[in-house]
Amino acid sequence: MRPLQAKRDPYRKKARKEGYRSRASYKLIQLDERFSLIRKGDKVLDIGCAPGGWLQAESERVGEEGAVLGVDLRPVEPPSANVETWVLDITAPDAAEKISAWAPGGFDAVFSDLSPTMIGVWEVDSGKQIDMTTAAFEVTSKVLRRGRPAVFKIFQGEFTDEFIDKARSRFERTVLAKPEASRKQSSELYLVCFGFKG
Q1: Which of 153, 166, 184, 197 is labelled catalytic?
Q2: Active site includes 142?
Q3: What is the pTM of this model?
Q4: What DSSP line would sit under the chain, residue for residue?
Q5: Number of folded domains in the chain?
Q6: Predicted confidence band at 20 (pLDDT cuts at 50, 70, 90)?
Q7: Is 1 among the domain residues?
Q8: Is 178 a member of any domain?
Q9: Domain range spanning residue 186?
C-alpha cells in the first residue's frame, strides 16, 4: 500500500484507535458477524497468525473460558492470557501432530490467513499462496472437530477452483466471501467452510 493510500485507509486508522495490531482484525470480525463462526468457550486455531490482529479478535470472541493457538513462521507476542503462539512451519510433516496435542479433543474452528512473500509475478504468487493454503487445509482436516467451521484465505488464480472443490468434498457447505475490510483492489477472497465431515 502506498503511503498516501495508507493515510486514507479508514480501517488502518480504526485499528490504531481501537488498539488492534492490524487492519486485518476487521476482516475476521466481519466474517464472524456475518457467519457466526466462533462461540464463547471455543478452542480456535489461527494459521499464519502474524502480526496478531486476528488473534486479538479471536481472543475476544472465545472469552476467558476459551483458548486460541496461533502458529506462524515468525514469532508473535500473544495479545492476551487465553492465546498461545508458536513458531511453526505448517508444511512440516509433524505439524498436525504437534497442533493436535495442544487440543486433544479437536479445535472448534480453524482460520487460515496465509500469504506468501510477494514477488509481483501473479502466477507465482497465487500458486505459492494456494500451496500454503493447501498445507493448512491438510492440517485442518486432522485437527478440526466434526461439524465445525473453517476459513481459508485464497487468491483468485489458476488453482483456485481446484482448492474449492477439495474443500467442498470435506465440508457440508462452502461460501466465498470478501469482507468490507478487504481492499477493493485485492484479489483475496475467503472460503468459509461449514460442517466439517471428519
Answers
A1: 153
A2: no
A3: 0.91
A4: --HHHHHH-HHHHHHHHHT-SSTTHHHHHHHHHHH----TT-EEEEES-TT-HHHHHHHHHH-TT-EEEEEESS----SSTTEEEEE--TTSTTHHHHHHHHSTT-BSEEEE---PPP-S-HHHHHHHHHHHHHHHHHHHHHHBPTT--EEEEEE-STTHHHHHHHHHHHEEEEEEE--TTS-TT--EEEEEEEEE--
A5: 1
A6: confident
A7: no
A8: yes
A9: 21-196
